[in-house]
């Protein structure tokens, strides 16, 4: 499934311990997760980041990361880059890595950092250093910063996550990858999700998982092969899942996998492990997705064992 024209959310510890499954069931297909704020101090890590990453990956929801910037200098900016890289160590997001360049609490203005020289410099350093580290960079900001604090050269050096709570975005640059269209105020739909509460909502304009994986960004290798990007996945239910599990149980009896599972119509942990074992056997990305190509590949393996 391409993420182009799909809706998603952005989350931080301010949202609490939310249900990614309820977000997914409400029709939101991706999440941008705050990893922290400011310089590289553990006390400024987002306390829900690890939890949100785990839940997104368990639910098969693509995620990216962002850091809220408080940088007032070049050294601050470099420390914020180190903060992001520390939080992403060992992880492979399939959406961009963004710097949140706003001044929602007035910190930059109070400390002399809300000016073109500082904001432009911080964005420039973040984009360059994050890209140098192999991650796909993005700037989150709104019209005020675009008009007053960020040069066209820096703004166009990466994709933009544009923030404007309105009925449409007042930005039409080719580099707009996402639009945050609502939060506490939402002119297009409810500002909340049942069972989750008020949440920021976004629209995606590019198929980032494909762009990032094929480009070898965010820890992905260009040689990684994706068999299916859509299909049955964790927590799916139904007769199709039951049939998939019967095939996987047969595969286990034939020695293709070694993972057992309950004989029911729920795609649980055991099913996901078995699916990934089959994908690993073929040298494919272990993404826990069993689509049409997976079924054909598994049938081929079973046929080879039974002939």
Account of the protein in words:
By secondary structure, the chain is α/β, with parallel strands linked by helices. 37% of the residues lie in helices and 16% in strands. The protein contains 11 helices and 10 strands. It has helices at residues 20-25, 49-59, 74-88, 107-110, 116-132, 143-148, 152-155, 208-215, 239-253, 269-281, 292-306; strands at 7-11, 30-37, 63-68, 97-100, 137-141, 159-163, 176-182, 192-193, 197-198, 200-204. It has an 8-stranded mixed beta barrel with strand order 1-2-3-4-5-6-7-10. A two-stranded antiparallel ribbon has the order 8-9. α1 (20-25) links the parallel β1 (7-11) and β2. α3 (74-88) runs parallel beside α5. The longest helix is centred in the middle third of the chain and has 17 residues, at 116-132. The radius of gyration is 21 Å and the shape is elongated. The model has no long low-confidence stretch (mean pLDDT 95).
Shape: elongated
Distance between the termini: 35 Å
Class based on secondary structure composition and strand pairing: alpha/beta
The total beta strand count reads: 10
Q: What's the tally of helices?
A: 11
Oligomeric assembly: single chain
Helices and strands, with pairings:
Layout: E1 7-11, H1 20-25, E2 30-37, H2 49-59, E3 63-68, H3 74-88, E4 97-100, H4 107-110, H5 116-132, E5 137-141, H6 143-148, H7 152-155, E6 159-163, E7 176-182, E8 192-193, E9 197-198, E10 200-204, H8 208-215, H9 239-253, H10 269-281, H11 292-306
């Amino acid at each position: 499934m391409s993420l182009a024209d799909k809706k998603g959310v952005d989350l931080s510890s301010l949202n609490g311990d939310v249900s990614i499954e309820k977000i997914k069931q409400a029709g939101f297909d991706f999440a941008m997760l705050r990893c922290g704020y400011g310089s590289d101090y553990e006390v400024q890590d987002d306390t829900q980041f690890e939890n949100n990453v785990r839940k997104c990956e368990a639910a098969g929801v693509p995620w990216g990361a962002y850091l809220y910037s408080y940088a007032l200098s070049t050294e601050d900016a470099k420390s914020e880059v180190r903060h992001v890289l520390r939080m992403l160590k060992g992880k492979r997001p399939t959406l961009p890595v963004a710097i949140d360049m706003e001044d929602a609490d007035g910190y930059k203005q109070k400390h002399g950092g809300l000016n073109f020289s500082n904001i432009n410099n911080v964005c420039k350093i973040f984009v360059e250093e994050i890209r140098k580290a192999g991650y796909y960079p993005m700037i989150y900001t709104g019209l005020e910063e675009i008009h007053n604090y960020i040069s066209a050269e820096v703004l166009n050096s990466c994709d933009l996550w544009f923030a404007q709570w309105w009925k449409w975005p007042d930005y039409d640059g080719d580099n707009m990858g996402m639009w945050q269209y609502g939060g506490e105020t939402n002119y297009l739909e409810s500002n909340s999700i049942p069972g989750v509460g008020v949440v920021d909502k976004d629209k995606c304009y590019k198929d980032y998982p494909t762009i990032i994986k094929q480009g070898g960004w965010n820890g992905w290798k260009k040689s990684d092969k994706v068999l299916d990007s859509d299909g049955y996945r964790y927590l799916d239910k139904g007769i199709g899942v039951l049939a998939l599990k019967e095939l996987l149980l047969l595969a286990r009896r034939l020695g293709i996998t070694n993972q057992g599972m309950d004989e029911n119509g729920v795609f649980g942990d055991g099913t996901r492990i078995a699916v990934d074992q089959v994908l690993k056997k073929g040298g494919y990305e272990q993404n826990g997705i069993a689509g049409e190509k997976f079924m054909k590949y598994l049938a081929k393996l079973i046929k080879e064992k039974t002939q």
